[in-house]
Sequence to fold (90 residues):
Amino acid sequence: MLATGNQSDVTIVVPGTTPGEPLLLHLHRFMLVQYEYFRIIFDGNWKETSENRIVVEGVDRTTFRYVRVSLSLILSLEKLSTSSTLELSI
Fold:
């Protein structure tokens, strides 16, 4: 899901170093709320709370690449945990 953006419900836009080259991350709110920054945005009374496209200014693009890798790791660990539980219950 994270690799393809399949079923994603939010796009994070990190502006590029030159105009017209934004980094687009098609992600999932349920994963982003693992980070306090996004939990505050999604749970608060902000315009981004209800938007599907969020532009993040003033943050290094590399930082958001790490966010995506971190989310992939969390998802992989959850899948591993779920499959181990299923195997044990059989």
About this structure: The mean pLDDT is 75. The chain has one domain: 10-89.
